[in-house]
Amino acid sequence: MRKFQNLLVTGGAGFIGSAFIRSAFTRPGFTGTIVNLDAMTYAGNLDNLVGLDPARHVFVHGDILDGALVERLVDTHAIDTIVHFAAESHVDRSIHGPAEFIQTNVVGTMRLLDVVRARPHVHFHHVSTDEVYGSLGFEDPMFTEEHPYKPNSPYAASKAASDHLVRSWARTYKLSATTSHASNNYGPYQFPEKLIPLMIANCLDGKPLPVYGDGGNIRDWLHVDDHAAAIWRVLEDGAPHEVYDIGGGNEWKNLALVHCLCDAVAELRGEPSEKYRALITFVADRPGHDLRYAIAGDKIARELGWRPSYDFVTGLRATIRWYVDHPEWIARVKTGAYRQWIDTNYAGRSA
Ligand code: NAD
Ligand code: DAU
Fold first, then answer.
1. Cβ atoms 11, 41 nearer than 8 A
2. Among 5, 161, 256, 302, which residue has the fewest nearby CB atoms (within 10 Å)?
3. Is 0.85 surpassed by the pTM of this model?
4. Looking at the domain that runs over 6-188+222-249+290-310, which CATH code has it been given?
5. For 299-343, what is each residue's pLDDT tens digit?
6. Cβ atoms of residues 293 and 220 within 8 Å
7. How many A from CA of 350 to the centre of ligand 1?
8. 8 in Cβ contact with 59 (< 8 Å)
């Protein structure tokens, strides 16, 4: 088992990075520090990390593109492991403005790799996505680690490029690096631009529920805490240069999922499902919309003993309950109030 003490987490105030940090501090045997480097784009939200011990969670407002800053953090905090979540992550935004995706996801990843290149004792884990494999037909077998890369959106292409950088830097410069590809995550604290939190927030506001195309596209859903646990296992026992696919084993057509969300919100509020189902509005399809993602998690199950622990319907209900019980979290995102602390304390400067 790999021993690690001090982690540099990039993008730790986003949805998955913050879940990873919260869960890390509950892991028996982990006594180290986490330095959380985040540029605090629109997707960064320090409300996701309240209540952590500041002696063990060191938040740094800064950009992964700033190589000198990353070097300083690694050296000052005796970092032995980097867990790289920071990214532009929303497919629709990548269609409207791909440049930022190339900067952060591709150039930013290269900056981090160059820091590790000069410090090969540091292990690098790259958090990537099943979208690099492209789209499956309804009858195709699931993605495996051997599937060819066929990215279809600027986001997916930028993540695919970053995967190739990790692979090639690791092989050429003999770095200790691992990569994981996960399917669609869901859970608390997800920015309400992604399907599940957007639909829940719109149900709660009585707003239309925009379903792209005919709603027949399929996604595989993974609870964010399961994802965090899988990454932890890879950090502990993942073999250098290896790639692990992390799936939820929950394939749902979008429309069926939105129906399920409507029904669950209605049940929680003691109202008829039809009130929410009537909000469903079919809108123009996403350009280049991938039909289906599905991941076979055989390798990580066999080699690292990790399997998803969440049953989807239970996890989804708990997630809906969380959003219903935390209207202030959604309100602070929607009004922009979640930016106040960072804008006040870090306006115009980085670490
Ligand atoms: P997110 O958009 O919620 O969070 C991304 C975080 O990165 C934000 O806090 C943002 O401020 C930060 N960031 C962006 N650019 C930065 C930069 N240049 N320097 C430093 N920080 C920067 O994303 P997420 O959904 O939590 O995804 C995290 C990672 O997981 C991404 O790499 C994504 O590709 C991958 N992933 C996401 C999913 C999913 O379903 N959301 C699934 C598989 C893989
Ligand atoms: O598969 C992993 C990927 O999952 C991650 O790498 C990405 O970071 C993450 O954003 C997610 O990508 P998707 O494009 O699959 O997620 P999104 O929530 O944007 O959309 C899920 C599905 O729902 C997709 O088929 C598009 C559809 N959709 C989405 C939105 C936002 C709608 O029908 N209406 C919507 O308003």
1. no
2. 302
3. yes
4. 3.40.50.720
5. 999 999 999 999 999 999 999 999 999 999 999 999 999 998 777
6. yes
7. 19
8. no
